[in-house]
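pipeline stage [seq->struct] | target=Anoctamin | organism=Neogobius melanostomus | residues=886
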Amino acid sequence: MYGTMEEGEYKFQQVDLPDDDCFCSQVEFNGKTDTLFFNDGVRRIDFILVYEDEDKKEFEKRHTFARQKRRREYFEASLMKMGLELEATRSVIDENLMFVKVHMPWDVLCTYAEVLHIKLPIQPNDLSSRPSLWRYVSCVTKPFYPDEKLIHKETDYFTAPFEKDRLEYFCIKDRDIFFTPAMRSRMAFYILSRAPYEIRGSIKKFGITKLLDSGVYKGAYPLHDCRFNVESIESDCPNERYLLFQEWAHPKSFYKMQPLDLIRKYYGEKIGIYFAWLGFYTLMLAVAAVVGLGCFIYGYKTQETSTWSKEVCDPEIGGKIVMCPQCDKDCKFWRLNSTCEASKKLCIFDNFGTLVFAVFMSIWVTVFLELWKRYQAELEYEWDTVEFLEQEEPPRPEYEAKCIYEKKNPITGVKETVPYSTCGKCFRLFFPASFHIFQIMLILASVVAITIYRLAAFFAFSTKLRTEDLKELEPLKEYVTPQMATAVTASLISVVVIMILNMLYERVAIWITDFELPRTRTEYENSLTLKMFLFQFVNYYSSCFYIAFAKGKAVGFPGQPVYLLGKYRNEECDPGGCLIELTTQLSIIMGGKAIWNNIQEVLFPWLKNLYARHCSGQSVASDKGCPRWEQDYRLQSISKLGLFYEYLEMVIQFGFVTLFVASFPLAPVLALVNNLFEIRVDAWKITTQFRRMVPEKASTIGAWQPILQGIAILAVATNTMIIAFTSDMIPRLVYYWAFSVYPYTENYSNTMTGYINSTLSIFNISDFSEESRPLSPARNITTCRYRDFRYPPGHPREYDHTVYYWHVIAAKMAFIIVVEHIVYLTKFILAYIIPDVPYAVKEQIKREKYLTQVILHETNLKLLFYFMFLLLLSDFKAGVPDFLVL
């Protein structure tokens, strides 16, 4: 069925075909299931629209589809009026489905290439490229790059924004391939997004997006060029999808660099810049992972030689130290050596190597961001997005559809229509902000709820694990402490709560952003990015911030404990500190998040496609008899937000790697392993399980760039404060350098000997209040120990903080100020000396602008002078020129 436009009427030429599917397939597609052309084999398919034929519906249901049919016919007539050519064909498998093939003729392509400011080649790049230092090791690195015999390097051109009236200045060797399929699909979608489908009075409704939402069309997508797992033998199929699968998405190619130019050519710049950033981030993570793994190995090797760990495990020291109960009434007295295993694990992460690694990561994150800016600048030039400005981006169809108010543009002075008045704009900004604050408060409420659970769980575990009468728990007592059991269960609950809140808030954030009605697609994504990241920041990191900076900081002492909400006694840290609990929290959240995301990204799309095939009674083998557009229709459609969730996942991971790395040196290692899978999983997913994305233009990673910079700045403060307040490093350093000053210490041959004893204060059990006094009687003890620096009972200032406590506080504050200033100064120097744009790229940009000026604009001046000469010559022939008379 072919559609033509004559005098504004929509007419069809019906082609009657036999009902036999095999014969139909051969006639309709000439036996070429991977064809990308109309039936004539000449006009290329730039887009596919899918709808359900109402004439095949049951008679009693047809009237419900009449409105949809009118809208679709008007929409398709509008498309042809705008210059597109359409061809419809029935499904080979389901006779109810109709596929409308969309083709953009040459004149339409030229028109919209100029409208969208698409840059196209004008001259080969004549600047000699500087030889890379990597050429000396090319024989070693060659196996890690895609096969050059399959993916050829393309010629480098200088480009300029396309102008329809100056075709002769562009390098047009073949009109059929001058505009790439990605460019053609992008221009086709631009037209589809603005073609009207209904007009009622002064109200015009338009856009394929709304037709998809209302069910008028079942799908709209550009075509993949062939099957991903079989190399096409047809001459008109470029096999780029097959090459991407073999050299990029296949698991066997996990060690190879990504073919970014081919990714950009096939999927567009927005997809290309995401995978370029992900690959660069993963490469930089390899450096951090090596250093972090070295720090971990150092801690693991030194855990057995740690003096304070030995003292905790020693039966003569830790075994004789009786600790005070850590909850009221039901908790009992316990021996310090019961935390022996936890103390050894703590030494792995809380050592001087961690300090070095935290400083290294603060420098690493700056180098990463600065080098990424340079690499991004290179990609901007190579991919012709240097002059991609936001004001060139067209408004969203949803924005244009609601433009009913007139407003004077302060820049141009021309009146233009906007979708809201001044008061309406204020309301659209204020209401979402208020609702967003409410959502964040809801998250904080969940954090408080989990904190209360921690207090109750700690009480329960303390009663169970400290009870000597429960013989069945005896094997666990050596390895599991109440703090550890509470941390693990609370972390698991946090992961579940995080996932649930994510699903709820996702819908709310999209609704709020739609209500704000941003003008362009970039503004929409930036607004949604900020909302979602603020939510995710609070959702994922709040529990970590609580453990790092709140837990165990305001607990009082056994005689006067501090209560939360006047009922729950604040939980204390392990005698070794809260660092090991923070490490546990990070490892569980990072691991749980990675596992859940991989299940979502791999298993769900595969199961959905498998279920769709099963319901339709088709198998993979049946694809051989289906045309290209029908094979793609059975794949999953891309989310409206596209790469948003992929970026969000990686940025949250980046926060874990940088914000709390002082407590978990293995975070870069876990992130590296996850990202090596992430790259291939994302590649496999979009290449094999999803329809081809509509190519979009992008020059940077957008709003994620300032978010990454903000995380990098915050990471310095958080890691410094973790070392100062969460770990036990500063008290150890103070003890190491000044232990002999204090009268209550002894001068041992080993300067760290006696450190554990110095960090535990003494409490007289007769000073317990009635609310906190343990129910179980004390056995032959009059005092117990607790973690703090307070004067012992009987001292004139009993239970007040000692001078040593204030010295430690002063050392912590001095450490924060000095280290932060040194690191920030180093970051500033590095950011200054590393230019954002390489010198070679600047030269090429200047050369390209010069050629554009010479070839396109100065040519206009020559033509102007030529016409003036002709005019002057004609005046001389007619008589004295007018300007001589004047």
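stage status: PASS
auto-comment: DSSP finds 28 helices and 20 strands in the chain. The longest strand covers residues 97-103.
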